[in-house]
Amino acid sequence: MRRLILLAMLAAVSTTAFAQLPGLRRRDGPPPVAPQQGVPLLGIDAVRADFVARSGSDMVYFGGDAAVLTPQAQAILQAQAIWLRQHPEVVVRIEGYADLSDTRDHALAVGARRAEEVRSYLILLGVPAAQLTTVSWGKEKIAVLGSAPAALALNRRAVTVIVR
Amino acid sequence: MTARPSLLLTLTIAVFASPAGAQPASVVAIPPLTTPNESNRGADSPAAIAWQASQLIASDLRSTAELVPVGPNQKDYYSYPEVTAPTFSRWRAQGAKYLVTGFVRSNPDGRFAVGCYVYDVSKGRELGRIGFAVRSDEWRRAAHKCSGLVYTAATGAPAGLFDTRIAYVAESGALGARVKRIAVMDSDGTDHNFVTVGDSIVLTPRLSPKAGHLAYVSYVGGQPHIRVVDFDTNQQRPLVPTSEMTFAPRYAPDGNRIAFSMQQGPNTDVYVVDANGGTPARLTTAPGVDTNPGFSPDASQIVFESDRAGSQQLYIMSADGSGQRRISFGGGWYADPVWSPDGQWIAFTRRIPGVGTRVGVMKPDGTGEQSLTAGPGDEGPDWAPSSRELIFQRAGPDGRTALYRVALTGGEPRRVNTPQDGAEPDWSGVID
Q1: Does the beta carbon of A67 lie under 8 angstroms from any beta carbon of chain B?
Q2: Cβ atoms B193, B234 nearer than 8 A
Q3: Which residues pair with B359 in a beta bridge?
Q4: Phi, psi for residue A64 in degrees, rounded to 5
């Protein structure tokens, strides 16, 4: 029953843009952008760009120590699920991250929990489990440096990375 | 790198007295070790080794909170017979409470005999002596052993403190894309070696008690998992053959078992496994993150952290997993518990919202909590084998990390020099 409702929601949501917090520079590679006119992307780069363009984002954010999906995160994952079901040949790695205020081993476990939460939700939305792998980066790959609350918030994330 | 020789040839060892409760910051006179034969002055001569060993002993003792070494000074030379019959008034006049004498001499087999004597200057009596026959490349260990004898005689702490190893994560490269390598060094910073080459992210090196093995977490192959290095053979292997994430390893005091965490789905639990492999035994089942297990010195109990009650807190259980009970109740989050080698304390990282992370200690029953550092970026403590000092990681406002030492009695933490930025330190036990 829950699955039917979610599928109905899916039909209503096509793409959802996620607003970046202003004034903070991203430190890991920027998300792929849509291909510009006349500069066609090839291979996996083109696939990744299409995924981000149609899903709104390859990234969802979490609050505090939590692994709970916010409504905004659910909307992005619903769009990701549509795309992934249309591309059954694609395999993704869901990368979970924690922020620098966490201790190292707990951060690893929290990152894993976030990646698992995204994976479970995508499966609930009908994406075959075989398309989904997970890894936790704990606090080893910080996207935004600094201890300000806004910087910490941008590190509490899960990223859906197309691996093939 | 290779394992250290497990044994020096011990000629004599005796400690006649271990006065507990010595006054803080006692002066130790360290005149240069002497030599019976002054003719050989080469780089590998007894005289050269005697001078360097004296400097190393002073350097070792300078790193402690309790002792203030004076010397070695060229003008303080004494004769060979004075090694066992020092002129106490001379050192009393310098304000010394303790005196170290000793010698280095050539043996017919090409090795060197190193002798070391500790005296209570005010009482005019010997507190202990130790002697070794060493190869010319082993004198540092003999000097470290001598430092340990002095420290034991003066403070009552276990012997061998200075002949220990520290493992840590050496960080280099741009922040946000750090290259991380496991490094191991003597506790005085010498004999520094890299264990991994930096092609994969590595975490949490943990030495076996005698520093012959190392467990750490590696991302090699994609999924973080615990690997074990044998320094004798330079071989390494995964601790348990699983595709699940394994992390937070720590050796039992006898080195034969490793407690660790394994993640399955959203749940992370504590397991224990034979250090040589085998089937892990699961010790916790609570939903949530149970991690950072560490044994009590008698191996009968395990301290760990869990967020089963909503936030990270410290818990203790019997080594079979029974009798789990929470010991931290101070507000905020508690993590990274490590039992002191003498069993008296549990060190931890405390996260205080809006303040940051600090290193503190509490008794195993949860009482007597003290903060040892002010933060805001201090975490991951581990004990010196003396149980009187801790090493930890401090992150600056720029995100760069360094290793620091702090005494159990408090005071300003002191930086530990490393060739690159240092994080996640682990201090071995006494090697032999």
Answers
A1: yes
A2: no
A3: B349
A4: 50, -140
For residue A25, pLDDT beyond 70: no
Please report residues of B whose CB lies closer than 8 A to that of A98: none
Q: What is the residue extent of each domain of chain A? A: 2-13+44-162
pLDDT digits (tens, 9 = 90+) for B266-311: 899 999 999 998 999 999 999 999 999 999 999 999 999 999 999 9
Closest Cβ opposite residue A106 in set B177, B224, B305: B305
- B-chain CB neighbours of A28 within 8 Å are 176-177
Residue B199 and residue B257 share a domain: yes
B202 and B150, same domain (yes or no): no
Secondary element (H or E) of residue A110: helix A104-124
User: Are the C-beta atoms of B426 and B184 separated by less than 8 Å?
Assistant: no
Residue A96: strand, helix, or coil: strand
Residue B408 distance to chain A (closest CA, Å): 22
Please give the span between the terminal C-alpha atoms of chain A, in angstroms, as a whole number. Answer: 32
Chain B, residues 253-312, CB within 8 A of chain A, namely 261, 263, 265-266, 268, 289, 291-292, 305, 307, 311-312
Q: Which two three-digit tokens encode residue B374?
A: 């002010």
Total-model pTM: 0.83
Is the complex ipTM more than 0.95? no
The residue range of the domain holding B107 is 9-155
Residue found by looking up tokens 């200057």 in the block: B121
* Alpha carbons B75 and A128: distance in angstroms, whole number: 81
pLDDT over 60 at B23, yes or no: no
What residues form DSSP beta bridges with A162? Answer: A92
Cα separations (Å) of B86 from B16, B140, B155?
17, 24, 22
Residue linked to tokens 């203790």:
B316
Burial of B224 (0-12, 13-18, 19+ CB in 10 A): buried
State chain B's mean pLDDT as an integer.
90
Fold of A2-13+44-162: 60s Ribosomal Protein L30; Chain: A; (3.30.1330)
pLDDT at B8: 47
CB A117 to CB B379 under 8 A? no
DSSP letter for each residue of B57-71: HHHHHHTSSSEEEE-
What does the alpha-carbon distance between residue B57 and residue B78 come to, in Å, rounded to a whole number? 17
On whether the CB atoms of residues B382 and B392 are closer than 8 A, the answer is yes
Of B263, B292, B399, which is closest to A112 when you measure between CB atoms?
B263
- DSSP E strand boundaries for B89-134: 98-106, 112-120, 125-134
Long-range Cβ contacts of B195-203 (<8 Å, 24+ apart): B195/B1, B195/B167, B195/B229, B198/B172, B201/A137, B201/A140, B201/A141, B202/B169, B203/A104, B203/A108, B203/A138, B203/A140, B203/B169, B203/B247, B203/B424
Scan residues 399-428 of B and list those with Cβ closer than 8 Å to A: 399, 424
Q: What percent of chain B has pLDDT over 70?
A: 92
B250 and B134 part of one domain: no
Give the closest residue to B50 by CA, choosing from B96, B121, B147, B115: B115
A chain contacts of residue B380, beta-carbon cutoff 8 Å: 103-104
